[in-house]
Amino acid sequence: MMSGSSPSAIPPSFLRPWKDSLASHGDEQRGDFPNYHVRDADCLLTSASPRSIRAGSGLSIFTDALLPAISTARSEIILVTCFWAESPTLSALKRTLEALAEQRRIARSYRDVPRASEDVGDESDPSPLLRIRICFSSRSLFQKLFHTPSRRGYTYPARAWPSLGLPSERILKEAGIELTVKSLFFLPFSVTHPKFLIIDRTRAFMPSCNVSWETWFETCVEFEGPAVYSLLEFYNHVWEYGSEPAALDDIKRPLSPFTLAAGGRVNGEQLQLPKAPSSLQFRGNPSRSLFPLSAPDDPLNAAVLTLIENARSQIEITTPNLTCAAVISHLLSALSRGVQVTIRTSKNMMLIEQLVTAGTTTSLSLRSFVKQYQRLVDAHAAASDTEGRDLETGVNQLPRPGALRIFYYKPDAGAISALDENEPVVSHIKLVRVDNEFVVLGSGNMDRASWYTSQELGILFYAPHMDTEVWDTPFSTRLEPMFPAA
């Protein structure tokens, strides 16, 4: 999803090549899930009013942002995640739903009490039906091995809800809550990786974290405005596949200030931010071949590569893993143009998954990347020493390769000394920033699994000079240089 004060505010220098790339591969995308963008890529262009950006552990993202939002819901909660596991996060979610159910049960019982004569004729319902949809992809190896291949997914019966760590049907029914729990997975590796929360079709959150037990460094963006419609449309095409999609209601909630907040021991900043041109980007790859010759040219892949290809001065990528050859190739091309590239990633994270899906690891890929970059620098130096002195050859006009900086995440030393159990052990943030103008957040990593076999979701903001302290401050004590070596 791309977002801003108006979609037209996104620079044509990005929009034209992005649309051209999608159009040239339209036939390849007709089997994607979803594929509603094929006929008109403009349906992904929208505007968003960001309310907050947070960084912290996954549990803190839930307890500080997502669960309080769930507690305010009056008509609908849509929670989509990838991994679902017994964890403090799941326990906190269950408590939140139980507390919400109790509040609604009390409100409904109050509604049934005879009212004073002056209240007769007041037909307002203090507790209308609350529709909750919980969607996930991966729960266990057994669940994935025997999962239905249908795009309609598997809907869990009410009797299974407690085994999923959720309240019982009785508790929810007494509170006027209608719950549906569904999973989607496509063998062998195609998870539906997006993570988002929509509250009453007026507020949306896109976190990087799952409902799981890992203590990872995460981020989350909250927004309002037309972009919520776009996110709901994506949800309808994926999770309500084969069903009659619910009508999109008008968004009436007043917009709120934009807030930066870092979880844990780091305090955030507050600032006002106008609407930002944005676009909802996704990778709809579950139906694709497992070993395609090139990265699928879907909206999210095309957006990231277009940003890298058109970068003028700087590219910053924060990703759990980096094993996608297409990304590395485009970054080398950007470096050759003089663009500075900064990468923040994690070391030794999900090694088995990397080897199975990519045949390599982040560490090996980065070593190869650095060697190729050093050859690029050496070639430029050699050209400058020989032919570069001859002004007529024009060789000395070749740009000097941009600076490459690569960092591995490491836990904060002070938190480790204090035995802080909430200190994130690896970074799971997915963030792309280009020229201090474009920001991409969402579920997509820079590894082969995300680029080739998983369904991913991202939101691209055109937001020049967005304050990045929410990430920069906590990262300032949590990085170790990989290249250049310290």
Please compute the radius of gyration using only Cα atoms.
24 Å
Mean pLDDT across residues: 86
Which ranges are low-confidence, i.e. pLDDT below 50, for 5 or more consecutive residues?
A: 116-123, 250-259, 262-274
* Structural category: alpha+beta
How much helical structure, as a percent, in the residues? 25-40%
Number of strands: 21
Count every helix, treating DSSP H or I runs of 4 or more residues as helices: 14
The largest sheet is:
19 strands, mixed
What is the straight-line distance between the termini? 38 Å
Structure description:
Helix content is 32%, strand content 23%. It has 14 helices and 21 strands. The chain has a 19-stranded mixed sheet that branches. A two-stranded antiparallel ribbon has the order 7-8. α3 runs parallel beside α4 and α9 runs parallel beside α11. About 6% of the residues have low confidence.
Short structural description:
With 486 residues, the chain is an alpha+beta fold. Helices cover 32% and strands 23% of the residues.
